[in-house]
Amino acid sequence: MNTPPFCPVKRHILTIAMEDYFHVGAFNQLIQRGQWYRFPTRFEQNTLRTLDLLDRFNIRATFFVLGWIADRQPDIVREVVKRGHEIADRGYYHRSVHQMTPTEFREDLARSRAALERASQRKVLGYRVAHQWFTPADLWALDVLAEEGYAYDSSIVPLEKSFRADAESRFVHLHRSGEKQIWEFPLSTSTFAGWRVPIAGGNYFRQFPHTLVKKAVRHWDHAYDAPFVMYFHVWELDPEQPRINVASRLARIRHYRNLDKMKWVLEDYFTKYQFVGIAEYLSLSTILKEVSTLTVEHALQPGFSLVAETPTETEEMPADIPSLTKTSISIVVPCFNEELVLPYLANTLKSVEATLGKAYALQFVFVDDCSIDGTWTSLQQLFGSHQNCTLVRHLHNQGVAAAILTGIRQAKTEIVCSIDCDCTYDPHELSNMLPLFTEGVDLVTASPYHPQGQVVNVPAWRLSLSKIASFLYRRVLPQKLATYTSCFRVYRKSVVAALELEERGFLGIAEMVGKLSLRGANIVEHPAVLEVRVLGHSKMKVAKTIVGHLRLLTRLLTLRIQKRNNGTKMPQKEDFSSDSGKSITATAPFPR
């Protein structure tokens, strides 16, 4: 077995992944990296919490950091270095080598290494893959790492058959690639009933009984000269982190189970064993002789594609269009028990305002539909001191359609958009919907069921119910649309504000289209992408909604038959002043 001859025994290895709760591989099918900017970050506070814990026990570690984090928050990277720890590479985004060719892998290494060295002012010597441990088929990546000058890697959990056949693979060893070589620090494993089981930390510490794992760690400490290689993620010290409830049950168990256990488990090991980082174990210097002169500010200049997925960070901002020449629009956001979602919404709307604000003068109307959590307080904190925001609160819960109507009536513009608070439709898509709102158009509605639309991660059973509902509405109403139930729309206020709805909840969204269709309104459908709700829970009651749709369809069919038989037009104006005493209003500008 090849072990570094210069390393003293009984010093074990501690590695820490600096990433956020929304980066993790368990959620990567739900959360695309183009959405990362929307989430309220917690890696700063979690890293500081981790550093304080290490300080208590006088422990030094290797922090594997995403380049994405280093470019956005270099101060926290510098704080890690200031506290005496090593910075190592975890790639720029949270990706697997399975998603990259060797050329793409080299490019990702170059980008992430440059970001980390800019932020830390230290030489980056090591690498760990962010998603999916290396398999025997991935050892080409070690060759690339060696060729790119990395001193070590720690991306292997030696569980597969070919690894088990090689006893050396369990311990620190050299991987040779021609004349190049690189140290491999595999995560530590133990054997139970003939099976090799990981005992290295992270998820394994949280899922397995501590009594069994600590016994295996003690055996390693006594039986082997090689260091025990342990790891955890900074988000594992954060039991209060937001929940991605739409994730699968297995993913939720993997990510959230026993988060409150992690701190005391780590304290137990820190009390019993001595840990160091990998560079220190190998006696390698991280002093960087040549520092890149490319700063984060330079990287964020127009033309430098740092994060092309975030609309506001890479587009060159033209000179502002004078406000007098901009089209004034209002954006209505109905809210009910959305305290958890509001920071996510705020980050998204900042980007929307930066994009749409080039051509439109934006006003925002937030309608709290008598939430019973902290929604109203959060709305005031996030939007309450800004002039282009109006905050309205229903004194009684009336439903999402009623909340949208309240917002439309409060709006001071003829063009009024409504969006979902949870951003299941990307609000940036308004830039494509608003040009469709030409003279004579009364409503532009987003349509995921349009032939060019798309639905992402929505459960198949719910998708089927929605499509059946749309099929039935097409049979009843003269306007043939693919989707009748989208809250993501652009309205003409003078046409819609006077509507009197019998259904004020989710059903009222379809009732709006139904009544407009029966009146001969001009409705334009725009193909859009509907994504599953990531944070919080859906408020819709499925069984109640199905019955309600059937009731609404019957009523709309009756109205259509009556109109045809009587040859009369439905009333165009209705009095809605009776709602004037049912809400309270505050005005404020949107945060910039």
Largest sheet: 8 strands, mixed
Number of domains: 2
Question: Mean pLDDT score, rounded?
Answer: 86
Give Rg in angstroms. Answer: 28 Å
CATH level-1 class of the largest domain: Alpha Beta
Amount of beta strand:
15-25%
Give the low-confidence spans: 5-9, 292-319, 570-581, 588-592
Keywords for this structure?
592 residues, TIM Barrel, alpha/beta, 5-stranded parallel β-sheet, 21 helices, 2 domains, Spore Coat Polysaccharide Biosynthesis Protein SpsA, Chain A, 21 strands
Topology (elements, then pairings):
Layout: E1 11-18, H1 43-56, E2 62-65, H2 67-72, H3 74-82, E3 86-89, H4 102-120, E4 126-127, H5 140-147, E5 152-153, H6 161-164, E6 173-177, E7 180-184, E8 189-192, E9 195-198, H7 203-207, H8 210-223, E10 229-233, H9 249-256, H10 262-272, E11 274-276, H11 278-281, H12 296-299, H13 311-314, E12 327-335, H14 342-356, E13 360-368, H15 375-383, E14 389-394, H16 400-410, E15 415-418, H17 430-433, E16 443-447, E17 454-456, H18 460-476, E18 489-492, H19 493-496, H20 506-518, E19 523-527, E20 529-531, H21 542-566, E21 583-588
Summarize the structure.
The chain is α/β, with parallel strands linked by helices and 592 residues long. It folds into two domains: 11-299, TIM Barrel; 327-457 and 483-502 and 520-539 and 584-588, Spore Coat Polysaccharide Biosynthesis Protein SpsA, Chain A (Alpha-Beta Complex), CATH 3.90.550.10. Helix 3 crosses helix 4, helix 18 packs parallel to helix 21 (542-566) and helix 20 packs parallel to helix 21.
